[in-house]
Structure formats: structure tokens, C-alpha cells
Design goal:
It comes from Clostridium porci. InterPro entries: DNA_repair_put (IPR023875), DUF4130 (IPR025404). This is DNA metabolism protein. With 261 residues, the chain is α/β, with parallel strands linked by helices. It folds into three domains: 125 residues, no CATH class; 84 residues, no CATH class; 43 residues, no CATH class. Helices cover 44% and strands 13% of the residues. It has nine helices and eight strands. A five-stranded mixed sheet has the order 4-5-6-7-8, with helices on one face. Strands 2-1-3 form a three-stranded parallel sheet. It is elongated and about 65 Å long.
């Protein structure tokens, strides 16, 4: 058994898939795992560290585009944003089935690798859909809108285009607290992803992000008004905590103004 150890990013996983295909060791004799994962070491397995080589990334993408379809490429990319630690291996096995059956494989839910990719995609899209509704911004004295989220999946690449379309003439920033990265949108320009410096470890180019995070906002009065409105419109006799949790899970609430007490 050969285990290819990949990084969490899409490009590195594609390089792991490239190695698994090109070295020709057989579908059942290889496995892809995330670097630093909790998987147990396998006896007599050979572990190979995967490096990102842009030429290999481009070859895999080109093969998917010419022999398969854009839809399959999209499903692989969304799966790479999943929280699941075994996503590299699931993506590899999905591609094996895709090259075997062609573009129509996306509808073959009876195949376990196809269903697993569909399930992972659904989970990522569902979380992104909820964060579109639950994301809250606060304005700093510099006029920058800042939001902090803590998603299970890496949904920033999906969430940022929505707010870039809705707030094109605003300076805003959405922080993924657990992954220490941010989607940054300068007024009237395209958004981009940036690492968030840890406290006390700011580089010169990222110090302005850290300063925005530390800066106090001027919205305390408005936040109090919003909380008052939220409490006032509630009908105590019809209060249903279970129903509310179904529509608004507890894990989203720490980042929402109306629950930030």
C-alpha cells in the first residue's frame, strides 16, 4: 500500500491524484491522506509526501476539461472545501469512476464514490447558504465592514462572491477564525483571500488586517437597538426553542449581533 500525503489545498490534492494515477500502482494499492491528519499509520505502507507542481495541476485540470466536464471539475473543487479529513481519497476514487464511465458519472448515485462526493458537496453548499443569511458585519472607525465566522467547511471562496456582488462599493472583510484567513474586498475592486496574522506575528504586508481586527467599532448603539427590536417582536407565548434551533443552529449564533450578549 502506498499512501500519498497531501496538503489541504485543492492544488496539492490534485498533485496527489496525479501521482496516484501516473505511478500505476493500481486502484486498490494506493490511498490519499491529509498531512497532519488523525489517521493511524498502516503497517508496511509506504508514505509519500506530495509537493505542489503547477505543471501537474494543469495537466489534471486539462484532462478533466477535455475528457470529462466542467461539472465534474466543480464537484471536485467543492469537495476540496469540505471539512472531512478523507476528502483527498474520496476525490481520487470519484475521478477513477469518472474516467471509467465518462461525464454521466455524476448521476450514478449507486456508485459509492459518486454518492460520497455528492454528499460532501451538499454539506458545503448548505453551510454556505446558511452563512449568506447569518453573516453580520460591524463597521470600524476606518469605515471597513468586518465580519467573523467560524464555519466547519472552508466556505470563504463561495461566500465572498455573494457579498462582492451585494456590496461592490464597500470596503469589507470576512474572517474565518478557525483557519486564520480572510476574504478582503477593497471598494470597487475584486476580492481576494489573505492569511490573517496571529497576534504578535504580523508581517508588514498584513499589519493593516490585524489593525482592523483590533479596532473598536462605532456600532454599539445600533447593536443594542437591534437586540431590543429582536426581543420586542418575540411573542413569549409562542416561543419555540426547538423550532428556532432547527432554523438557526446554535453554532452560528456566536457570530450574530442579536445573540452577542
Amino acid at each position: 500500500m502506498t499512501v500519498y500525503v497531501c496538503g489541504p489545498d485543492f492544488e496539492n490534492i490534485l498533485c496527489g491524484i496525479y501521482a496516484a494515477f501516473m505511478e500505476g500502482k493500481g486502484y486498490e494499492n494506493v490511498r490519499l491522506e491529509l498531512r497532519g491528519g488523525d489517521q493511524d499509520l498502516k503497517l508496511f505502507a509506504e508514505y509519500v509526501e506530495v509537493e505542489t507542481v503547477q505543471e501537474r495541476v494543469e495537466r489534471v485540470i486539462r484532462s478533466i476539461g477535455t475528457r470529462l466536464s466542467h461539472r465534474i471539475y466543480e464537484q471536485l473543487y467543492i469537495a476540496s472545501l469540505s471539512q472531512e479529513a478523507d476528502r483527498p481519497d474520496r476525490m481520487y476514487r470519484f475521478l477513477v469512476e469518472a474516467f471509467r464511465y465518462g461525464p454521466g458519472v455524476v448521476d450514478m448515485m449507486q456508485l459509492p464514490p459518486v454518492y460520497e462526493i455528492f454528499r460532501m458537496n451538499r454539506n458545503v453548499y448548505n453551510e454556505n447558504h446558511r452563512l449568506v443569511q447569518f453573516t453580520r458585519f460591524s463597521q470600524t472607525f476606518r469605515g471597513v465592514l468586518v465580519s467573523k465566522i467560524d464555519p466547519k467547511n472552508d466556505v470563504l471562496p463561495l461566500l465572498a462572491p455573494y457579498f462582492a456582488d451585494r456590496l461592490p462599493e464597500e470596503n469589507w472583510m470576512i474572517i474565518d477564525k478557525s483557519r486564520l484567513k480572510a476574504a478582503v474586498h477593497p471598494m470597487g475592486k475584486s476580492w481576494f483571500l489573505s492569511d490573517v496574522p496571529q497576534e504578535g506575528k504580523e508581517s508588514e504586508g498584513k499589519s493593516w488586517i490585524g489593525s482592523c481586527l483590533r479596532e473598536q467599532t462605532d456600532e454599539e448603539i445600533y447593536q443594542n437597538l437591534w437586540r431590543t427590536f429582536f426581543d420586542a417582536v418575540a411573542v413569549q407565548e409562542r416561543k419555540n426553542d426547538k423550532c428556532q434551533r432547527n432554523h438557526l443552529p446554535l453554532r452560528f449564533r456566536p457570530s450574530m449581533t442579536e445573540f452577542d450578549r
